[in-house]
């Protein structure tokens, strides 16, 4: 996925962040890498838009899954005994804690949050989150580029490692 983002920064970032919840690769790395590949301010704006769109799609998928199977999923993962309410502020903050990012958006959907409010919260958190990591990616452009050059020299083992980490993450979370 990192190679794809490096070759096609805008499309790669949208695609990668759209499925970020199911990848072992953190979204922060994806955004920083995409930001390090662009040179001009116009490209940075395109990256920001691509990142926000990708995260919004990812969050909406999580929301729709939580809405569609709310009763089944709550029973399946044993949340029917928990009675708590996530505030929009808590969900906004969860965007910056990778282990909680996807869970907060699923639970926010479980609560029956209206889609309009969900989109506003997701959009605000994505704007701040993507903006922060775009700036970090631009600031550490040379170091990120050097690391990616080193990884590209590794051949297929990087792809195998990425797929292996993703499969392991899915196995740990769902088994």
What does it look like?
By secondary structure, the chain is mostly helical. It has one domain (2-174). Helices cover 78% and strands 0% of the residues. The protein has helices at residues 2-7, 9-18, 27-37, 41-68, 70-76, 88-94, 98-110, 115-139, 141-152, 157-174. Helix 2 packs antiparallel against helix 3 (27-37) and helix 4 crosses helix 7. The longest helix is centred in the N-terminal third of the chain and has 28 residues, at 41-68. It is globular and about 50 Å long.
How are the SSEs placed, and which strands pair?
Blueprint (H helix, E strand, L loop, with lengths): L1 H6 L1 H10 L8 H11 L3 H28 L1 H7 L11 H7 L3 H13 L4 H25 L1 H12 L4 H18 L1
Helix pairs in contact: 2-3, 2-4, 3-8, 3-9, 4-7, 4-8, 6-7, 6-8
What is the number of helices? 10
Give a count of the beta strands, DSSP E runs of length 2 or more: 0
Write the element-wise H/E pattern from the N-terminal end onward.
Answer: HHHHHHHHHH
Distance between the termini: 24 Å
Q: Which class best fits the helix and strand makeup?
A: mainly alpha
Mean pLDDT reading: 75
Shape assignment: globular
From the structure provided, what is the oligomeric state, counting identical versus distinct chains? Answer: single chain
Helix content: over 70%
Strand portion: under 5%
Tell me the major beta sheet: none
Q: What number of domains? A: 1
In terms of per-residue confidence, which ranges show pLDDT below 50 for 5 or more consecutive residues?
none
Rg estimate, integer Å: 17 Å
